[in-house]
Design brief:
Helix content: 25-40%
CATH topology: Rossmann fold
Radius of gyration: 19 Å
GO biological process, one term: mitotic G2 DNA damage checkpoint signaling
CATH class: Alpha Beta
Strand content: 15-25%
Order of helices and strands: EEEEEEEHEEHEHEHH
CATH architecture: 3-Layer(aba) Sandwich
Strand order of the largest sheet: 1-11-4-8-9
Subcellular location: Nucleus
Structural class: alpha/beta
Number of strands: 11
Largest sheet: 5 strands, mixed
Main location: nucleus
Distance between the termini: 35 Å
Organism: Melipona quadrifasciata
Shape: globular
Number of helices: 5
InterPro entries: BABAM1 (IPR026126)
């Protein structure tokens, strides 16, 4: 994607309601999305693998790549005009490896080329600020105060950060978390109204759902 100054995207504008809850004051639109996946490829020496119910074990990067691949294919079926980009985090740096494209085969091929980068013992922290500086250069955003043109796309950055052996390794939760991100940001309900709990109609009518 070229760095066009005329690029127009949606910057959410919010206002508080009576309960001091932030509400979006922009109507839902079926706009194409530009989704950037920022994948942490750093692997700790003592990292905990994902263990499936079958007994099979997989390293975190393998599971991350598979869930992102599923996300891309499903999202593209919903709307083919969505575009995806890839950025990777190394132990102490980052690299933009695939520009925004709606070619699912191309983005998945780049995804499969990502390999583990063993984390150096002295690299326990990471400055994420440099990532957003790079994103801003690749994707200049319009001036919210002066740009009144209708948006032509929505930008999302999905950061998958995994460099801690304390991070849970539940494969089902990983897939569930990625599935929750499939919904279009301008079309899904406010987070306070979202419930992912499966219950009987009689139970849902009597008790509020808290598992969000």
């Amino acid at each position: 994607m070229s760095n066009s100054e005329s690029a127009s995207c949606f910057i959410p504008d919010f206002k508080p309601d009576e309960d001091n809850t932030l509400l979006r004051n922009f109507s839902g639109m079926n706009l194409p999305e530009k989704i950037l996946f920022v994948i942490d490829k750093a692997r700790e020496r003592n990292c905990t693998p994902f263990k499936l119910s079958t007994g099979a074990s997989y390293m975190p990067l393998f599971m991350i790549k598979r869930t992102i691949e599923n996300f891309i294919y499903i999202k593209s079926v919903i709307q083919h005009s969505h575009e995806y980009g890839l950025m990777i985090l190394n132990s102490h740096s980052f690299q933009w490896i695939c520009d925004f494209t709606n070619n699912t085969n191309s983005i998945v091929n780049h995804l499969n080329l990502i390999n583990d980068d063993f984390l150096e013992e002295d690299k326990k922290t990471y400055d994420l600020g440099q990532i957003f500086d790079e994103i801003e250069q690749k994707l200049p955003l319009p001036n919210k105060k002066s740009d009144t043109a209708d948006p032509t796309f929505v930008v999302r950055v999905i950061l998958v950060y995994s460099r801690s052996n304390k991070v849970g390794r539940n494969a089902a939760k990983l897939h569930d978390s990625m599935a929750k991100l499939l919904a279009h940001p301008l079309q899904r309900p406010p987070q306070k109204d979202v419930c992912y709990t499966i219950c009987l109609p009689s139970q849902c009518s009597q008790e509020p759902c808290n598992n969000v």
